[in-house]
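Run log // design_07
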């Protein structure tokens, strides 16, 4: 039976970029797939600058955001990566079969390493830990954004290599996990930059109040060619239009495109309509988050149940892996 695995960095509260780009899709997938595992990847967070107390807090905040956004512990498994020690155990094993050159070729590594004076080994082997994350549960389907497709190719490569060397010829032990591309295109930052990212300060937090959201939405960058209200716009180049596609019903999206391209309304009116539709979706999420913060045991219990289930699966995998590799 298909098993889905996906992970998210413990960046604290979700922003709408990662909500639309990943988590909203997860919420739908948990209804379609009886075995979905979602992981807060706190080991991965160690490869960047971080403060230990803040990391713990951000992991908790991420759990609250995910549960508030609709991840249901009765349908899906949610846990923090570092509570299942076999992730790093399997990553070490995969380190021993992964060629250095393949890791050095990874675009994300080259990009990040080029911006750092001193590069830690963990940044290089990040995709190996990702392969371990997925293959520890022998997951065959991984919902990802396009920027993760190369890493997933490496996971397939690792699975192939391990199977070739250690599994029986007619019974590959690890599946080669396939990407399930997230349907929503990447949401740009409010400043028009290609990516919405906390470090760039161009996000809308999923749990921000209506007033805070409007204060950010109102001045957000639109079609730069639309200088005056009388200039017809091109909705496809406007981030606000793409947010409409994510939050507003189809007839509203069609109306937005029409009114924009014929200069029948101004950008503020367009944003007001978007804001209303965002609020319709986000108010219940904020309400659930407030309940979860009032009752912290709910998130703790969900994470603990997830950890217990994942440890059991991980223990089974490691027993099989170690046995095949001649380890005690
Ligand atoms: Fe963007 Fe809407 Fe303005 Fe068109 S009318 S440029 S879609 S904000």
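design_07 sequence
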């Amino acid at each position: 039976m298909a098993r889905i695995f996906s992970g998210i960095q413990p960046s604290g509260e979700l922003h709408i970029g990662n909500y639309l780009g990943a988590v909203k899709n997860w919420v739908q997938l948990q209804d379609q797939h009886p075995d979905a595992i979602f992981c807060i990847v706190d080991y991965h967070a160690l490869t960047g600058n971080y403060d230990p107390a803040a990391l713990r807090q951000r992991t908790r905040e991420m759990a609250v955001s995910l549960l508030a956004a609709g991840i249901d512990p009765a349908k899906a498994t949610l846990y923090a990566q570092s509570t299942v020690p076999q992730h790093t155990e399997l990553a070490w094993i995969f380190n021993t079969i992964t060629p250095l050159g393949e890791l050095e070729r990874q675009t994300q590594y080259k990009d990040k390493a080029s911006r750092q004076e001193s590069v830690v080994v963990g940044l290089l082997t990040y995709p190996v830990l990702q392969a371990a994350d997925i293959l520890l549960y022998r997951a065959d389907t991984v919902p990802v954004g396009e920027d993760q497709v190369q890493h997933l190719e490496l996971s397939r490569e690792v699975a192939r290599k391990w199977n070739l060397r250690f599994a029986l010829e007619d019974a590959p032990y690890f599946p080669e996990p396939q990407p399930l591309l997230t349907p929503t295109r990447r949401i740009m930052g409010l400043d028009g930059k290609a990516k919405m990212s906390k470090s760039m300060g161009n996000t809308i937090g999923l749990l921000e109040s209506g007033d805070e959201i409007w204060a950010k939405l109102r001045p957000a960058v639109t079609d730069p060619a639309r200088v005056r209200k009388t200039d017809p716009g091109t909705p496809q180049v406007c981030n606000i239009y793409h947010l409409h596609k994510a939050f507003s019903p189809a007839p509203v999206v069609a109306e937005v495109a029409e009114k924009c391209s014929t200069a029948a309304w101004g950008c503020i009116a367009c944003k007001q309509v978007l804001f209303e539709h965002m609020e319709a979706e986000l108010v219940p999420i904020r309400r659930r988050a407030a309940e979860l913060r009032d009752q912290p045991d709910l998130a703790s219990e969900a994470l603990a149940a997830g950890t217990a289930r994942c440890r059991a699966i991980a223990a089974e995998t490691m027993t099989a892996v170690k046995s095949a590799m001649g380890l005690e």
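The mean pLDDT is 94.
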